[in-house]
Amino acid sequence: MNKDFWLQLKEQLLNFLIEIGPELIYAVVSLIIGIFLIKLIMSVLKRTLKKSRVELSLKTFVESLSIFLLYGLLFFIIGSILGIKTTSFIAVFGAAGIAIGLALQGSLANFAGGVLILVFKPFKVGDLIHVNNNLGFVQKIDILYTRIKTFDGRMVTMPNGNVSNSDVDNRTMEPYRRIDLNLKFSFDTDMDTIRQIVIGALKKHPELIKDLPVEVYLDEIGEYEMKLKARCWVASTEYWPAYWEQLEAVKKALDTNGIEIPIPKRKVYQGNTASSEQK
User: Fold this and answer.
1) Which of 157, 156, 165, 158 is nearest to 120 (CA)?
2) For residues 36 and 28, what is the distance between their CA atoms, to the nearest angstrom?
3) Are 65 and 125 in the same domain?
4) At 187, which CATH number?
């Protein structure tokens, strides 16, 4: 009886392989050919996008989406070869889609966020942005995440859903950006002299935009000093190096002309006499 069982099992297995074998072989061959074709199509697509004038952010998004769609089509073809009916296949995918959609609501929101970013273009790859307390250059925008590289070398990955729903400060969207320097001087310092010294120092910077104004204004009269604001314009991509260099140039120009930082003073009354104290 034991021998008959194994013979029967062997016969059933052979019948199964004879029945399903060709479809299984076709499916495996189709899988191998499909993967090869997907790689070939993606290679052609990448070369085409590279030669085109499409923005880099859109290129990465199209590549990510194309891979997803091509593999989905491949699995659909393999299922059809194995005998899964189209209606059943669609029903299975529909049910799976609902289940996956409920489980991956955040990912779907990120996908929608990625589409919104590419459509409305609040930023693109290469822009310097400040979002969610992170400041850095955009490195990549794919179907789910945006990656930025900070000034200290960190790579920050942010979900597109959060980015698209946040305030994005794009600091390189405009070609020029204004530098504002806050300066303090004692009340006995001559305003015209300060203005001449500061403007002269600012105008020497090689990255200065010559067609835009260089200004120095009295911004506030404080308790111990007068506060001035100096302004000039540079290319947005050169903002931070120019800011630090301009601040240093102004400091050196003031030192050369003997103008010091103001020291708070307080008058102390003692009896009928008044003495001046520095604090």
Assistant:
1) 165
2) 13
3) no
4) 3.30.70.100
Q: What is the distance between the alpha carbons of residues 202 and 195, in angstroms, rounded to a whole number? A: 11
Structure tokens at 172: 């390189």
Q: Give the C-alpha separation, 231 to 178, whole Å.
A: 7
Strands 215-221 vs 176-185: parallel, antiparallel or unpaired: unpaired
pLDDT digits (tens, 9 = 90+) for 75-102: 777 777 776 665 555 665 565 555 555 4
Report if residue 269 sits inside a domain.
Answer: no
Distance in angstroms (rounded) separating the CA atoms of residues 136 and 129: 6
For the entire predicted model, the pTM comes to 0.59
CATH number at residue 154: 2.30.30.60
- Is the CB of residue 123 less than 8 Å from the CB of residue 133? no
Find the helix or strand (DSSP H, E) in which 80 lies. Answer: helix 56-81
How many domains in the chain?
3
pLDDT, tens only, 158-200: 999 899 889 999 999 899 999 999 999 988 889 999 999 999 9
Residue ranges making up the domain that contains 252:
176-256
Give the residue from 4, 63, 11 showing the smallest Cα distance to 39.
63
Summarised one tens digit per residue, pLDDT across range 225-247 is 899 999 999 999 899 999 999 99
Per-residue pLDDT, 128: 93
